[in-house]
Amino acid sequence: MVPYSELVLPILLAAALVFVASSLIHTAIKWHNADYKKLPDEEAVRAAIRKGSPGPGEYLVPHCLEGAEARTPEMQKKFEEGPVGTIWLKAPGPIQLGPFLGKWFVYVLVVSAVVAYLAHAVMPANPPYLFVFRVTGTTAWLAYSWQGPGDSIWKGRPWSATLKYLLDGLIYACLTAGSFAWLWPGRV
Fold first, then answer.
1. Which DSSP string do the residues of 67-119 spell out, in sequence order?
2. Which domain holds residue 138?
């Protein structure tokens, strides 16, 4: 088992590569742009939401948390009439990418550190490149991607968007795995 402190370089490299790859995916390739639809009467919807003055958070429409309530005729009518969905609201104000990017980098750094921890715990002495790649890549892919199907199942995210996020995560996982496999201390 290698000392965890010897994994700092692959942790940092993996985080940096994932950060750059995600930036390219979202700013240059932009394959997620088609996933975000515009509401037909956006201004009326915005006005209705502002009128209610909801704070930042996650909202259900129609709001129903109990099975018994969902079976009432009034709630059944709301579900039939629609819309049915989940709405995420942020605090009003200009979009400033700096804080988002900073939090994203911290997140990818934490994912890389957790990948290192798991690999450190299960890796035999002098592991081959492919073994390191498989363990770290699988762990990273689980971390980056696999909430997506749950969001499609429970929250209604289109499966086409989820498949793209699974592909994003696979790219991030391969970059993470390559970083660890290349820089793993004592690797044969």
1. HHHHTSHHHHHHHHHS--EEEEE--SS---HHHHHHHHHHHHHHHHHHHHHHH
2. 4-38+94-183
Closest CA to 106 of 94, 95, 98, 96: 98
The C-alpha angle with vertex 161 and arms to 159 and 163, in degrees rounded to 5, equals 70
Q: What is the pTM of this model?
A: 0.90
The Cα–Cα gap between 186 and 13 comes to 18
pLDDT along the chain (188 residues), means of 10: 93 98 96 94 96 95 93 96 94 94 98 97 93 98 96 94 97 98 86
* Residue 163 within a domain: yes
